[in-house]
Design goal:
- There is one protein chain.
- The chain has helices at residues 2-8, 21-44, 53-70, 74-78, 84-102, 107-131, 140-144, 148-172, 180-201, 211-217, 223-227, 229-233, 235-255, 261-278, 285-301, 307-316, 318-328, 345-363, 375-397, 401-408, 410-421.
- It is mainly alpha-helical.
- It is globular and about 60 Å long.
């Protein structure tokens, strides 16, 4: 159904029946009047590229939620306090997807920066493990820990690079001819998804006595790897989920008419959330979050259809949205329901309806704030530091002192930024 939906976007308004001559004249006059009015407004008010403040705020607040989770505050996420399960990780992944599309650097420069962040974060965790005498040699996965998010970004960079280039080409040229590489990768992901879907339909879910299952069943394997074994054991459905999102996005980049680009994001949302509701499996949120990362890349170039209307209505009636989220939440549910899906389909629908709502509000800019005090400058620097070092402080100091030390660094970043602003060079 999603393939048919994407393929149907190839037909635009130009394919509609031609209007009568009188209608053409009336529409032409209206178009000229609108163009002259728009041209006058543009001449009076030149458009400036505005900073997307909601990306900065989302990144900072999401890192704060990660600190709560990793520094002993599990009850915050287990109780979905502040709807954190619905927006913290999704916003972090979508912000990364938007950032990769907006970045002017090439893929290798992007990967190099990620490797530097990865080395700093893993190095900090290793220092804490060495000081506390934790057996990191046999459980290095827990030394990497939160930096697996960076590993995901590094892996996704080359996988999503064909899509990134295809979207940039479509952004520069509304009617380009798809490159051979774009066509080749579209076919590749289509074939890979078809084979994986066939394996999944034949009952291969990774639970059979294959090499992967036997490896994870070995008692010598670290407990951390045994806990995340289902992620790799369900490889067919993972390829369908992630590869399918890449295939649909690339297919849209090849065939989508400029008049229908706003529909592509809605199709991708339906594709990923319908799987989360209808085909649940343990820890299925990991491929789902990667799909949201790809979805954000697409909507950066092709905003969702109706984005301005959604943003305007949410900003006008946000108290009703807040009450809707309160009614949609399930206060009797406990645990990481985003990672371990609820048992009943109605509960999964309610769980992901809240996440879907907040994701749409985010990419449409409905939550766009402002930053007159330039707080996000030094808070953004702190969030990068906090993400790399909060696990180290928690393992060295425990709860709540690890989180206290991490948050206590905020004034230091404010002071350093203020001193830089007052320097002669800044003046």
């Amino acid at each position: 159904a999603c393939i048919w939906a994407v393929a149907s976007t190839a037909h635009g308004q130009a394919d509609a029946p031609k209007p009568l001559p009188g209608d053409v004249m009336n529409s032409a006059e209206a178009s000229l009047a609108a163009d002259s009015e728009a041209g006058g407004q543009q001449a009076a008010e030149p458009q400036e590229k505005q900073r997307l403040w909601h990306l900065d705020f989302a990144r900072i607040c999401a890192v704060m939620c990660v600190i709560f989770e990793h520094s002993g505050g599990l009850d915050y996420t287990h109780r979905n306090v502040g709807f954190g399960l619905w927006w913290a990780l999704p916003y972090l992944y979508m912000t990364s997807g938007i950032g990769s599309m907006m970045s002017k650097s090439g893929m290798w420069g992007y990967i190099l920066r990620l490797l530097c962040v990865f080395a700093v974060g893993v190095g900090a965790n290793w220092v804490a493990d060495a000081c506390t005498h934790r057996d990191w040699r046999h459980d290095f996965g827990n030394t990497i820990f939160q930096m697996f998010f960076v590993v995901m970004l590094i892996i996704m960079a080359p996988l999503a690079e064909p899509l990134r280039q295809a979207l940039r080409l479509r952004q520069a040229q509304p009617f380009p001819q798809a490159s051979r590489w774009t066509t080749a990768f579209t076919i590749f992901w289509g074939v890979a998804c078809a084979i994986s879907l066939l394996l999944f339909a034949r009952g291969y879910t990774g639970d059979s006595q294959d090499f992967v299952s036997q490896t994870f069943a070995n008692e010598g394997v670290a407990a951390w790897m045994q806990f995340y074994a289902p992620v790799l054991k369900h490889s067919p459905i993972i390829v369908v989920h992630v590869g399918g999102t890449l295939f649909l996005s690339l297919l849209a980049a090849v065939v989508c008419h400029p008049d229908n680009t706003g529909l592509v994001g809605w199709i991708l949302l339906f594709f990923t959330y319908s799987q989360m509701i209808m085909i649940p499996w343990d820890q299925d949120s990991f491929p789902h979050l990667i799909c949201l990362n790809i979805f954000a890349m697409v909507t950066t170039v092709w905003p969702l259809s109706g984005s301005k209307t959604i943003a305007r209505q949410v900003q006008a009636y946000w108290p009703f949205l807040l009450m809707f989220l309160c009614l949609d939440s399930m206060p009797d549910m406990w645990g990481r329901c985003d990672v371990h899906s609820p048992y009943y389909i109605w509960e999964r629908f309610r769980m992901f309806l809240g996440e879907f709502t907040l994701a749409v509000c985010f990419v449409t800019g409905a939550f766009t704030p402002s930053d007159p005090g330039q707080v996000t400058v030094w808070m953004g620097q702190w969030s990068l530091y906090a993400y790399c070092f909060h696990v180290m402080w928690y393992r060295l100091l425990g709860s709540p002192y690890g989180a206290i030390v991490t948050f206590a660094a905020i004034p230091a970043f404010w002071a350093m930024n203020r001193r830089t602003d007052k320097s002669p060079a800044a003046a």
